[in-house]
Structure formats: C-alpha cells, structure tokens
Amino acid sequence: MLGQMPDLTPEGDDSAYGRPRFVWAEGGAEAGLVPTGVPGGAVGPDGLDYEALLEALADSGRLADADADQDAVLTDELAAATDGRMSPADLARTAAIAVEHIAPGPAQAAWLETATAAAGRLDEDALAGIAIAAQQAASRAHAAGLTAAAQITARAAAADPRIGLEADGRPVRLCRDGLGQISLALMLTGYSAGAWADLGITLTWRLPATGAALAAGSIDLDRARVIADATSVLSEDTARLVEAKILPGAGRLTKTDLQDRLRRLVIAADPEGAERRRQAAERHADVRLYGEVDQTATIVADKQPQIEAAAGFARLNAMARARKAAGFEGPLGWHRSQVLLGLLNGTLPHPLRAPRPTSPHPTTPVPLTVTVLTAAAPAAIRAAATLAAARAPAPARAAGTLTGCPMTCPPPAMRTPPTTTAWTRYWAAPVRMTGGTRMRKMMIWPGPGQRRCGRSWARSRPPWPGPPPGLPMGGRCPGCWMLPCPG
C-alpha cells in the first residue's frame, strides 16, 4: 500500500546484493528507515523517492549534525530501542514534516499524498507542513496553466496575419481565437480568459523571474498577480529592476505588505511617471451611490486627491469623536456616518450637547387642548378659553426629529419677533367640527414674557464650526446649528 514501509529490519543481508538493505537514518525515530539499495533519484518499490525525503529532512534541520560523534548517536539510539523508548517509525509523519522542503514536482506530490492520507492522526506541526507543501504544489500547477495559456495565445496570434509575433516570440496583442480556446477549455468568460492569458504572457516573457518563482513554489498566484499588476505601468527594463528587488522576500510578505512595498518601489523607479498617473487619475474622480440588499446605501468617493481626502477624513473623524465624547451612544463609525450625512444634507445637529436622561424638563412635548372659536362665538366662551390658556403650565420644549437626533429645537417663538398674543401656536392637528363650532387641538408654546426652555442655552452655544461668512441661514436658528426647525 502506498505510504507503508515494508516490514523489514536493517539487520540481515540482501540475498541478491550481499549487503544490508536498510540503514538507520540520522535523527532516530523521526527519520525512520531509508533504503540504501535505491539508486539516487529513483523511487522505491512503493513509488516513493526516499532520497528526496532524506534530503528534505536534512534541509529541515531535523537530522543530527554531520560533525557529531556518529558512534555516540548510534549508541544512544540502540539503547533507546533496547529500553523501549524508541517508537516505530511513522512514515506519514516523517513525510509531513519533510514534504515542505521537497522541491515541487513528482517526488513532493507522492510524499504529499502519503502525508495527507494520515492527516487525521497528525499533530499541528505536521499539518502545517502539509498546508505549505499543498500551496507550493498549487503554485506549480498554476505556473503550468499560465504557460499553456501563453503558448495558446502566441500560436493563435502567429496564425493571424493581422497580429503576428514579436522577435522574442510573444504575441503582439491578444487575439479572439486564442481567448476563445482558453475560455472553452477552462469555462471562463471572455473577460476572465483575457486576464488569464495576459498574466500568462506577462510571466512568460515580460517577468520571467516571477514566473519561475511561481513554478518553484516561492510565491503563490495572488502574489504573482500583484507583482504583474504593480509593474504594468513601467517599461519592461524598469519592471524587471523592481521585480529583482521584490522577489527575494515576496513569499514572506502578506499580500497587503507586498502591495505597499511595490507601490513605493514603483514610485521610486519612475517618479515622473507616477506624477503623471496621479494627475490623470484625479481627472476621473467621481462619487457614486450604491444600493445594498439590506435596504441601505453605500456612498463611494474615489480618485480623490490624497492630501485633501486625508484632511477631510480627519475633520470628519474629529467631529465624530466630539459627538461620542459629548455622551451620544454608538460606535465611532456610526457617528462618522451621521456627521457625513449631516454635512452633505446640511442637517448636522450640534454635537457638543447630549440629552440628559434626568432633565427636569421631559423631552416629550405636553399637548394642551385649546378651544379656538370663531368670531361669532359668544364673548363669554372666548374669555373662558383665554383664561384657561393663560393658567396652563408651561409645556416642555419639543425635540427635533427631522434628523433622528435628540437635540432640542427651539420653537418659532424664539426665532421670530415677539407678538402681542399670549400664546404662539407650534403646530395644529386636523380641524374638526363640534356642535357647529370650529374647534381644533394644537400644541402651544409660551409667548413673550413667558419661560422659554432652551433659549438661554441656544444663545450660549458657540457657532461651532459655524457657517461661512455671508452665507444666509435660510430660516435656521443658531441654536439648531444647521438643523431645520420643525416649525
């Protein structure tokens, strides 16, 4: 069975060759048994390359030092075997800890299959080796697929007299015939087939070192695509210089870190070109609105100047933190979104005063019923209604609800010149008829000389950040700070 060691011992001579068939590999139980009669580079009777396994174990550092006292090592191993302290060799675990150090190819594929078959009983160290080796094998497979796509594109271009090939054999441009073959073979759309073919051509002719690193398993497909995309704006010679600087450590960088380093290297390699590309990109700046499946919306502003965008976001963040420090609940991101919408719509409330739950004045307005009679009503009834209104307690101020903010909005009486009436109407409900007399229910607010909740507070607030000089307030009051009053 694949992956199982023959039930043989190192003692005894091979009948055919007159020599020991197996020897103990350095390192003891982890190394297991390695056949000595297998020629270099060949595979054993079970289809596994034991020489590649031994070299991988040596590269991993799990074998004993070559300069160590071999007699002492052998004595310790024999003593451990005599005392029962040496467990039988586990070929699957040995393969798992060594397979990541085998070069991608047939030997690694065979040992990877052996290790994967026993993944359920391996520890985390061995499983991590399997994951690394699997990624290396996938990189080699991707490199083979990209090479095939590049050759298909080149041969299709060579067969088209309108396209042709360049001196080094690369196609002048992508052709429809080649993309059709790739799309049919891999079941890709035309766009995906074009992207795959373009990447294959790039890694085959423009950046061959990146293609070689992908085939060797040093980088994966995502990192190869990042390198190709980042250097696509450079000339071929400059791109290869950047490639030579980034490849040695590309496999040990995350994709984000790799993109950051490539961005800096590209700017340093061609600063004038980077400035031209920035100016061209800013001419395509745009703001877009997208609807989401959960009935929300997304606003995107792209291709903005970096300095102005950073300054705007810093101001947005500062205003959101001011709201949060003032006592408003919610995460910082939610406050940023509220400030952004307020600035865009001109409905941003004052962020420095949060509602007080223990305020002596309730936030819910107190409805008072006042009978409004026509001029034809008896004078006694009108006098009684006026007296009842004058003796009613002063209602609490209402909370502005247009922006969903619990900020108190002063009534129109605080913004308009005082009148001679005792009460100022805030809003009215639908008119109804009772006994032939026109009557209506309405909310009332104190008139001149009465207590006005929030008026002194509104006047004491600083105009932060304040409207630009000369900008008309449009009927808004300073206390609302850009908040349209419901009155």
Beta-strand percent range:
5-15%
Number of domains as seen in the coordinates: 4
Structural class from helices and strands?
mainly alpha
Low-confidence stretches: 1-40, 361-377, 394-455, 461-467, 471-487
Tell me how many strands there are: 8
Series of H and E elements: EEHHHHHHHHHHHHEEHHHEEEEH
Strand order of the largest sheet: 1-2
The global form is: extended
Give me the oligomer status. Answer: single chain
Share of helix, binned: 40-55%
Span between N and C termini?
87 Å
Q: Kindly state the mean pLDDT as a whole number?
A: 74
Major β-sheet profile = 2 strands, antiparallel
Cα-atom radius of gyration: 40 Å
Give your account of this protein's structure:
45% of the residues lie in helices and 7% in strands. The chain has 487 residues and is mainly α. The strands form four sheets. Strands 1-2 form a two-stranded antiparallel ribbon. The model is unreliable at 1-40, 361-377, 394-455, 461-467 and 471-487 (pLDDT under 50).
What are the SSEs and their pairings?
Blueprint: E1 22-24, E2 33-35, H1 50-60, H2 70-83, H3 91-98, H4 106-117, H5 124-159, H6 176-186, H7 190-206, H8 208-215, H9 221-230, H10 236-246, H11 255-269, H12 271-282, E3 286-291, E4 297-302, H13 306-325, H14 332-345, H15 379-391, E5 423-428, E6 432-434, E7 437-439, E8 442-446, H16 455-460
Helix pairs in contact: 1-3, 3-4, 3-5, 4-5, 5-6, 5-7, 5-8, 6-7, 7-8, 8-9, 9-11, 10-11, 11-12, 13-14
